[in-house]
Automatic annotation (TrEMBL):
Keywords: DNA-binding, Transcription, Transcription regulation. Coiled coil: none annotated. It comes from Streptomyces populi. The keyword DNA-binding applies. Residues 12-72 form the HTH tetR-type domain. GO terms for molecular function: DNA-binding transcription factor activity; transcription cis-regulatory region binding. The lineage of its organism: Bacteria, Bacillati, Actinomycetota, Actinomycetes, Kitasatosporales. InterPro entries: Homeodomain-like_sf, HTH-type_TetR-like_transc_reg, HTH_TetR. Residues 35-54 bind DNA. This is TetR/AcrR family transcriptional regulator.
Length: 199
């Protein structure tokens, strides 16, 4: 291994350590009350190193959000690919499979998910979250083959996406995996009924 590869590995390891420590501190204290000094101390590094990698508390929070978002998108895309490879073509079946994957990811990453739905985030985060939510609605509309340019179609996809988002928040408060699975199964059944084309 060359020197640059070794440095990159150490750098990646430090970044992972910083993100893990920031998640712990944000989860314990909330974003507003979280201190960079405490995050750096949990990592055993000077605060300056934290700034060098993430530029401060906002950068750490946004990196956690980006990581959660990317993992959820990867998980959902992999599920949809697997379903299509099995020959599934029905838009509702694909949508519900994707929703299930998303909700299972929300359960698996519930600590981070719970943090990201709180109202205690950095300035401007709500606008970023709304922008991502709009993109999520558009992806769901394409998956369900619904014309979101029509108000009725847009509203239907928005309602379905809101159901998934609300359920993801509820999963953060589940007591155990059995309860989480029951909720996911129940909501997927509801989504099947709500997704059916009108008429």
């Amino acid at each position: 291994m060359g020197l640059s590869e070794e440095y990159a590995g150490q750098d990646g390891s430090l970044r992972r350590t910083l993100l893990d420590a920031s998640l712990e501190v944000f989860a314990e204290r909330g974003y507003t009350d979280a201190g960079l000094t405490e995050i750096a101390a949990r990592c055993g590094i000077p605060v300056g190193s934290l700034f060098q990698h993430y530029g401060g508390k906002r950068g750490l929070y946004l990196a956690l959000w980006e990581e959660f978002r990317e993992e959820q998108e990867r998980r959902t895309a992999a599920t949809l690919t697997a379903e299509r490879n099995r020959g599934v073509e029905d838009p509702v079946a694909l949508f519900v499979a994707g929703a299930r994957a998303y909700l299972e990811g929300a359960w698996d990453n519930r600590r981070l998910g719970r943090l990201l739905v709180e109202d205690d985030g950095p300035a401007g985060f709500d606008a970023l979250r709304r922008q991502w939510d709009r993109a999520w609605v558009r992806r769901n509309a394409r998956l369900l083959e619904i014309d979101e340019r029509r108000r009725a179609g847009r509203v239907r996809v928005s309602v379905l996406t809101t159901v998934i988002g609300g359920t993801a928040r509820e999963l953060g408060d589940c007591g155990d995996e059995t309860e989480a699975r029951e909720i996911v199964d129940e909501v997927c059944g509801i989504l099947i009924h709500l997704s059916a084309p009108p008429g």
